[in-house]
């Protein structure tokens, strides 16, 4: 049997050699927001290892309050763009494809994420860091317009640099997800209200990005039920709610949905073994990426919370679901940090020889 991971896939005109995606992972190795040669070499190594599509770590769009970690790369400014140009070149020279991920943190700041510089005001739909915890003012219409413009500027930069596509980070409780989630969106204007109304900010971001990059350039959206503020949070409790939530986002111009879960094997709703990516594909009919503990036995939140090692597991269940067409692409996170040639190793039947993941691996960029 052909291994379904190693069959080609196309998103619009973009041809991918296989179904393996490098999950976006913040590494904070870009001092001053500028990715250097070490970042380019890091991504090149994964392309050489056989990854079909790399999605970069989150990069800040052109908005002054997009994020507060000075070592997270930006997608604006001459120096940062020159750094990214080299990243793209290295990946392409190695035969890989690469999307950038646009990441606005919104109200997530403080320890681990950095604090806003003097005079910079963090922004969020209702000024809440999490439910019941104020941390700023609700966004004005002008704040919203400026943030949307910042995504648009960064998207144009991405296209000009030669990236193969863009992923908008709408997951995990950051700005876009702060609009999606009732826990952080208490607005009574057109950006708040029921789940569909709470997609409006994202819809406007997607429409603006789409307007600027044109209809042929691949555009993905990452979303999740869980939030870093609440791992048990749910946006959609039924397939009907999920469809109502995704439809306006799809119509706004998303080509590819990256359905972020921590354990890919978990059914999203009762009565079916489909996971979030499976349901999204079934309901919306557009390509999906699954993710979450591929070849590892512990999810990444657990990896962060302790120094425990996440051990290697098999891959059969994943392949069986891919074979059945439940999703189209498979993102691999931690396992690719410690195994840059994960695709080649898996292809040659060496799953059991993959290295396990421990948090200490994040101390270096290799
Ligand atoms: C070090 C690290 C950094 C991450 N940074 C991001 C990020 O910038 N954007 C994002 O959408 N997800 C981020 N994630 C989540 C991963 O993309 C992925 O969904 C998660 O690690 C689960 O995949 P895994 O179990 O294969 O590691 C990060 C995860 C890790 C481990």
Question: Helices, strands, pairings?
Answer:
Layout: E1 9-11, E2 14-16, E3 20-22, H1 37-48, E4 53-59, H2 78-93, E5 98-102, E6 128-130, E7 133-134, H3 141-161, E8 165-169, H4 175-180, H5 200-213, E9 219-224, H6 239-252, E10 256-260, H7 276-284, E11 288-291, H8 300-305, H9 316-323, E12 329-332, H10 334-338, H11 342-347
Parallel strand pairs: 3-4, 3-12, 4-5, 5-8, 8-9, 9-10, 10-11, 11-12
Antiparallel strand pairs: 1-2, 6-7
This protein binds flavin mononucleotide (FMN).
The site of flavin mononucleotide has 24 residues, from strand 4 and helix 10.
Specify the oligomeric state.
single chain
How far is the N terminus from the C terminus?
A: 34 Å
How many distinct beta strands?
Answer: 12
Helix % is 25-40%
Mean pLDDT rating: 97
Strand order of the largest sheet: 3-4-5-8-9-10-11-12
Q: Radius of gyration in whole Å, from Cα?
A: 19 Å
Major sheet details: 8 strands, parallel, barrel
Task: Name the features.
366 residues; alpha/beta; 8-stranded parallel barrel; two-stranded antiparallel sheet; binds flavin mononucleotide
Question: What does this molecule look like?
Answer:
The protein is an alpha/beta fold and 366 residues long. It contains eleven helices and twelve strands. It has helices spanning 37-48, 78-93, 141-161, 175-180, 200-213, 239-252, 276-284, 300-305, 316-323, 334-338, 342-347; strands spanning 9-11, 14-16, 20-22, 53-59, 98-102, 128-130, 133-134, 165-169, 219-224, 256-260, 288-291, 329-332. An eight-stranded parallel β-barrel has the order 3-4-5-8-9-10-11-12, surrounded by four helices. Strand 1 (9-11) and strand 2 (14-16) form a beta hairpin. The longest helix is centred in the middle third of the chain and has 21 residues, at 141-161. The two termini are 34 Å apart. Bound molecules: flavin mononucleotide (FMN). Flavin mononucleotide is lined by residues 23-26, 57-58, 101, 103, 169, 171, 222, 260, 291-294, 296, 299-300, 332-335, 362.
